[in-house]
Amino acid sequence: MFHVKHLIKMKILITEAYNIAGDSLLRLMKSETNFDIYLLSEKAKEQYHNGNIHLYPCNILNFKVVKDIAYKIKPDFIINTLDYGDLQNNNHKKIWDTNVFAFENICSIARVLDCHLITISNDFVFDGEKGLYSEQDKPCAISYYGTSKHAMENTCLINVIKCTIVRASLLYGYNFYGYQLLNTNLIYTLKAKREHEISGNYYTNPCLADEFAYAVIKIIEKRRTGIYHVSGSEYLSISDFTVKVAIANMLDPGMIKVIPEKQIQRNPEEDDYIPPKKNPMKFGLVNYKSETDLGIKFSNIDSGLMAMKHYIYGEKLLPI
Question: pTM for the whole thing?
Answer without folding.
Answer: 0.90
